[in-house]
Amino acid sequence: MYTAVAAVLLGLFSLPRTAAAGEPAPSAPPRGSAHMGMGVVAHDGRGGLPTRRSTQTEGVDVSSHQGDVAWPTLWNSGVRWAYVKATEGTYYTNPYHPQQYDGSYDIGMIRGAYHFATPDTSSGAAQADYFVDRGGDWSPDGWTLPGALDIEWNPYGDACYGKSQSAMVDWIHDFLDQYRARTGRDAVIYTATSWWKQCTGNYAGFASTNPLWIARYASTVGELPAGWGTYTMWQYTSTGPTVGDHDRFNGTVDRLRSLALG
């Protein structure tokens, strides 16, 4: 009997611990460490690289994972635009943002900032305010791209941040409405089609106002989220020839500057 009871107890204690509500999963990374595309490889996989096209313009996105970036190296490799992580939730600011954001501008790139959304920690409007106040603002100088909302798999827990599809759509609306109220611009939406389907029900209502930045590590962009007939930007790899994730703007540098100007 003792042996049987011991076996049961051992089995119970060896079960994986389930995170409490609002608590990161046991294997979750530290808060603040999320970055664009963190869940893309895990959920969508990695395919071949696309063929270069003269009508597309090479870019990168960076976060604190890249530290101080060698912008001259990126410029010499053909990169002409960049997005820099500014904030996450209402609790994290990228300490490398000044070097990354100002450094890309100083070398001649058109650059913007992005916010990693955590819809389970605070409202969309609160996160938009936090973002704008800490590097995500926009100015009509021709060098500043509208802020980007990075909305993707939750690296700290439930993929959809514990929200229903309709609640997720409401949260995104809240962020986008406040960002526009603060800056006068419609934010770019960065996402992956599979996440968008899973967590918003493939909502099509943002396509008429918000540029799409699609994440797909393959030779083609594949299916886009509902409503968007084309993409504005494409993150096509996390293992590019130089630092950061590599992206393409779907147009020439002149068109990119038009987006910056608004």
TrEMBL record:
Single GO molecular function: lysozyme activity
Highest taxon above the source species: Bacteria
Signal peptide positions (record): 1-21
Keywords: Antimicrobial, Bacteriolytic enzyme, Disulfide bond, Glycosidase, Hydrolase, Secreted, Signal
Annotated catalysed reactions: Hydrolysis of (1->4)-beta-linkages between N-acetylmuramic acid and N-acetyl-D-glucosamine residues in a peptidoglycan and between N-acetyl-D-glucosamine residues in chitodextrins
Keyword Hydrolase: yes
Subcellular location field: Secreted
EC number: 3.2.1.17
This protein's GO CC annotations: extracellular region
GO BP terms in the entry: carbohydrate catabolic process; cell wall macromolecule catabolic process; defense response to bacterium; killing of cells of another organism; peptidoglycan catabolic process
Major site of localization recorded for this protein: secreted
Function: This enzyme has both lysozyme (acetylmuramidase) and diacetylmuramidase activities.
Family, per entry: Belongs to the glycosyl hydrolase 25 family.
Descriptive protein name: Lysozyme
